[in-house]
Structures are given as structure tokens and as C-alpha cells.
Amino acid sequence: MDFLPLGDRRGSLVALEGQRTVPFAIQRVYYLFGTKAGVSRGYHAHRRLQQVAVCVAGRCRMVLDDGVSRESVWLDSPTRGLMIRSMVWREMHDFTPDCVLLVLASAHYDEADYIRDYQQFRAKLASIE
Ligand code: TYD
User: Which residue CA neighbors atom 20 of ligand 1 most closely?
Assistant: First the structure.
């Protein structure tokens, strides 16, 4: 999703509003930063959580896998958000040292909502279908 950059000759600004710019009520905001060179993150899916990821500085590559197809997307713009629905496996790779990845989430942190094992993720998907 593309965000409308606001601002004026002094510089830019992006405003994100729950249930408007972002299609859910925002319950949590967190950001990944200081990722060490060569380190990949994520490797999990969420049972119910919906998220929007925005790379506000630097860049990284997000891999999304819904059990049918696997896509790889570069996140490198503060005006572009990536929607990550529930039951989508995500991996994050190739972080630049300056990367700050902002994540808006539809619920508070709940470890029970995570699926951290890929085979378990595929089995859960199969049980839903
Ligand atoms: P994790 O989701 O595994 O991070 P990554 O995206 O890098 O794979 O979370 C890393 C640690 O931070 C883990 O111990 C859980 C904790 N954590 C919270 O306490 N609250 C949060 O909102 C998040 C996202 C993680």
C-alpha cells in the first residue's frame, strides 16, 4: 500500500491512522533496528495478528509465504507499507545497517499467537482448508 506523503517545502511527513490508512485498529507499534550484518529475522507466522510493515530508513527484504506462493519484496520506502495478514510465514533478510523497520500490529504482544515452526505452519494451513 502506498501512503500519501504530506508536508511542505521543509520536508515530508506520513501519517498512519488505524482503520483508515491501515485496515485495522492499531494496538501495538514496534520497530526493528540495529540488525547485525548478515542476520535474518522473523521465521514465524501469526494465527490471528495482522500487521503493516514500513521501512522508515534503510532497506531490507521481506519474504512472505502463504503456503501457496512465496514472494520476496524489497522494503525501501517510508511511503510504502506491506500488509501482512494472519497465517502468512515471514522472513526478513538483507538488512542495511541503518534499517529501521516499523511495524503496526492489530493486537498486543501474545507469544501464543506465534507459529515459529514452518512444518507446524503448513500443518495448520492444511487443517484450515
Ligand atoms: P520476534 O518476534 O521473535 O522478533 P523478530 O521479528 O526479530 O523475529 O521477537 C523478538 C523478541 O522480542 C522475542 O523475545 C519476543 C519479544 N517481543 C515482545 O516482547 N514484544 C513484541 O511486541 C515483539 C514483536 C517481540
Answer: 109
Q: Is residue 1 part of a domain?
A: no
Task: Verify whether ligand 1 is closer than 6 Å to residue 41 (CB atom).
Answer: yes
Cell representation of residue 107 = 493486537
Whole-structure pTM value: 0.95
Number of domains in the chain: 1
Check residue 5 and report its DSSP letter.
P
- DSSP for 47-67, written as a single string: SS--EEEEEEES-EEEEEE-S
Q: Is 93 designated active site?
A: no
- Domain membership flag for residue 107: yes
**Which residue's CA is the nearest one to ligand 1's atom 19?**
109
Residues 86 and 110: beta-carbon distance below 8 Å: no
pLDDT in tens, the chain (129 residues): 999 999 999 999 999 999 999 999 999 999 999 999 999 999 999 999 999 999 999 999 999 999 999 999 999 999 999 999 999 999 999 999 999 999 999 999 999 999 999 999 999 999 987
